[in-house]
Design brief:
Helices cover about 40% and strands about 20% of the residues of chain A. Chain A is of the alpha/beta class and about 290 residues long. Chain A has one domain (about 5-290): 2-Layer Sandwich (Heat Shock Protein 90), CATH 3.30.565.10. The longest helix of chain A has 18 residues, at about 145-165. Chain A is globular, with a radius of gyration of 19 Å. Chain B has a 5-stranded mixed β-sheet, with helices on one face. Chain B is globular, with a radius of gyration of 17 Å. Chain B has 2 domains: about 1-100, 2-Layer Sandwich (Transcription Regulator spoIIAA), CATH 3.30.750.24; about 105-165, no CATH class. Chain B has helices at about 55-70, 80-90, 155-160, and strands spanning about 5-10, 15-25, 40-50, 75-80, 100, 105-110, 115-120, 125-130, 135, 140, 150. Chain B contains 3 helices and 11 strands, in the order βββαβαβββββββα. The interface of A and B includes residues 147 and 231 of A. The structure holds zinc ion. Zinc ion (ZN) binds near residues 113, 115, 143 and 148 of chain B.
Chain lengths: ~290, ~170
């Protein structure tokens, strides 16, 4: 079954647009009808289902190569299916125009408020945190989430600085350093951290110049973080960073163009209760390509 | 953004009280606290702004070490914000086995009025353990209107899990 087989009516309004063609051939795997069989290859599928547990769909990320999961119960289903299609079929388009793609549900008329900072060393963290606090400022919707926002910014920042940099052979440069050591990107490389919000949505992400994210590795870390309650002893990170982001978001988008750049972005909803934020079924999209 | 800081006090009962401020992050260093950890230590988490994954790891590793060195040391935690309660529930070893949470924060929210506040739950007042059973009373919180009220803005089955007798 394809996504169109499931949602033909919903996609009808866009059937003359290139988007329709993009979504057209994508196969869907419906978790409501049963879990994937062992050995099934779902790498070109989008997983869908109603209130599917994070740990459950992460099993398929680890065992079946699944890289996109969308909750059919969420109110932004069509948007998430669109994002899944772009990430699966046109990842470069997303990497080249992240804000345009993220804002596509609102149309260009609905301007986004944008905050961004460049950084390349641990010493930039205080400036980044001070700056995001100013951006949060008196915006009531963001203010209620300020603790969540700070945690996400903090995790994104240290991921980009410690985990992303690799040498010419692809070996991590800073991964095994203590997280309180001072590090700086070699050369003139910079990463960018951004937060953009519309009236009801908030996206927080980083773009780093390394393109070193490995799909299997990320899937395993997330799966472990949702199945065990222990901090990792075998690496310098705690193993909870990605989970802390996804727990506070509704979706996580991860794109990595090999040895070029990576994008890690959380999608959050403004103006809802913390309880709803925590209870919303999670969605995940990964494409590491090139 | 305030950096990590620990202030040491001796309270009225001659117990060591450690006030943690700012971010519990990669700069959180408990090993350098020059306190006498004798029978009981009180941690006041009231001014913690947030905690990151490295901060979780530092804390868990320090707790593991100090409880191995001093198996009879008792921990008391006061004014724990949501950021800390979330970790007590998520991470094994965050809450040492020989410990008591004396008070913690619960965010409240009224969706109708978009009003929020934070309440402090205190042991013996909102919660207690009797005969191995958790007794929890969730107080009402008015939002200012007659036809609605605030309710705890947490997933109750998850948020209060750390209170259950272990
Ligand atoms: Zn109200």
């Amino acid at each position: 079954m394809t996504l169109l087989d499931y949602y033909a009516d919903s996609f009808k309004p866009i059937q003359n647009s290139p988007l329709y063609t993009l979504i057209g051939g994508i196969k869907a795997f419906n978790f409501d009808k049963g879990l994937p069989e062992e050995g099934a290859d779902l790498s070109d599928h989008v997983g869908i289902g109603d209130h599917v547990g994070t740990q459950t769909f992460l099993e398929a990320f680890v065992n079946n190569g699944l890289s996109n999961f969308v909750q059919t119960s969420n109110d932004d289903l069509m948007y998430e299916l669109f994002i899944a299609a772009v990430i699966l079929k046109k990842p470069l388009l997303f990497l080249n125009n992240p804000l345009t793609i993220l804002n596509s549900q609102h149309g260009s008329a609905n301007a986004m408020n944008v905050w961004q900072e460049n950084f390349n060393c641990t010493e930039h963290k205080a400036r980044v945190l001070d700056s995001i606090e100013k951006f949060i400022g008196n915006n009531k919707g963001m203010n209620r989430l300020s603790e969540n926002i700070l945690i996400i910014i903090d995790e994104l920042f240290s991921n980009a600085l410690f985990n992303a940099p690799v040498d010419d052979n692809g070996y991590p440069i800073f991964k095994n350093m203590e997280r309180d050591e001072k590090v700086k990107y070699p050369g003139n490389k910079n990463a960018r951290i951004f937060a953009v919000h519309t009236q009801h949505d908030l996206f927080i992400g980083t773009i780093d110049p390394w393109g070193s994210i490995d799909r299997d590795h990320i899937s395993n870390i997330l799966h472990r973080a949702y199945s065990e309650r222990k901090v990792t002893e075998d690496s310098k990170g705690a193993g909870f960073g990605l989970r802390m982001m996804l727990d506070r978001a509704r979706s996580l988008y991860i794109l990595s163009q090999h040895r070029e750049r990576s994008l890690v972005c959380c999608h959050m909803r403004l103006n809802i209760s913390l309880k709803k934020i925590e209870n919303v079924p999670k969605q995940l999209h990964i494409n590491c390509f090139g | 953004m305030a950096g990590f800081k620990v202030t040491q006090k001796i309270d009225d009962n001659m117990k060591t009280r450690l006030q943690i401020e700012g971010a519990m992050d990669e700069h959180s260093d408990y090993g350098s606290i020059e306190a006498e950890f004798t029978d009981e230590v009180v941690f006041d988490f009231g001014d913690v702004s947030h905690i990151n994954s490295t901060g979780i790891k530092h804390w868990v590793q320090w707790v593991e070490k100090i409880t191995a060195d001093r198996p009879h040391l008792r921990f008391v935690f006061i004014n724990c914000p949501k950021a800390i309660v979330d970790q007590m529930n998520m991470v094994e070893g965050f809450l040492p086995s020989n410990s008591k949470v004396q008070s913690f924060k619960v965010p409240y929210y009224c969706e109708t009025c978009d009003k929020d506040t934070v309440c402090t739950f205190v042991a013996g007042r909102e919660y207690s353990v009797e005969n191995g059973q958790l007794q929890l009373t969730i107080p009402d919180q008015k939002c200012g209107r007659d036809d609605c009220e605030m309710e705890p803005d947490v997933v109750e089955q998850k948020y209060f899990r750390f209170l259950k007798p272990r």
